[in-house]
Amino acid sequence: MFTTLYTSILPSLPRKYPRKVQFIFRQQIQPWHPSSTLCHEAGAAVLRVAPESFWGFSNVIFSHQKEFFDENVVKETRNETYKRLAKKASEVGIDGEKVYGLLEIADKPREDGSLNTGNGVTNDVKVMVKVNRLMGVHVTPTVLFNGVVENSISSSSTGAEWQAWLDENIK
Predict the structure, then answer these.
(1) CA within 20 to 30 Å of 143's CA: 25, 42, 76, 113, which one?
(2) Does this model's pTM top 0.85?
(3) CA distances from 84 to 29, 39, 75, 160 (A)
């Protein structure tokens, strides 16, 4: 669905529906795909470092998503996966070192002895999860229109189907 939106729908929205549509992309972590959490954290880091590059970064991640599937990260540490994600950010002109700096997990307790403190985007992820719970989003993809879940749009919807739906519903 991301690729369809990114290439077919989003570019036409301002021209076709000026000031009529606001598109909000919310990341939805799927805990049954543990490595997807790391990708969402990387997206949150990109939003902090270079928010204008979030869509381009997301496009790269979706284009290379299989590289980050569970079977392809199982033998590396979490920080190694973060380094690969930060490298993907660099590919679209984002400062990968800054992205990695927000993602890196410490390998020892903090000075006060606290453990399990997360990383520089842990609180952002908490907000993502809370917002999606409040909106009633439990799976991906989920499309909402005027705050209501729209089940007629699914991951298999084509650009033409999206366009027809928008034409029918945006007045």
Answers:
(1) 42
(2) yes
(3) 19, 10, 13, 35
Distance CA 50, CA 95 (A): 8
Residue carrying the six token digits 């036409």: 12
- Find, among 155, 164, 165, the residue nearest to 3 by Cα: 155
Give per-residue pLDDT as tens, 1-31.
Answer: 888 988 888 998 889 999 898 888 888 888 8
Alpha carbons 124 and 47: distance in angstroms, whole number? 10
Question: pLDDT for 53-64, tens place per residue?
Answer: 999 999 999 999
Identify the CA nearest to 70 among candidates 105, 41, 32, 40. Answer: 32
Paired tokens of 31: 């805990």
Number of CB atoms found within 10 A of residue 14's CB: 11
Question: Encoding tokens for residue 35?
Answer: 């490595």
DSSP output for 119-170: -TTHHHHHHHHHHHHHHT--SSS--EETTEE-TT--TT--HHHHHHHHHHH-
Please calculate the CA angle 30-64-25 and round it to the nearest 5 degrees: 50
Could you tell me which residues are beta bridge partners of residue 144? Answer: 149
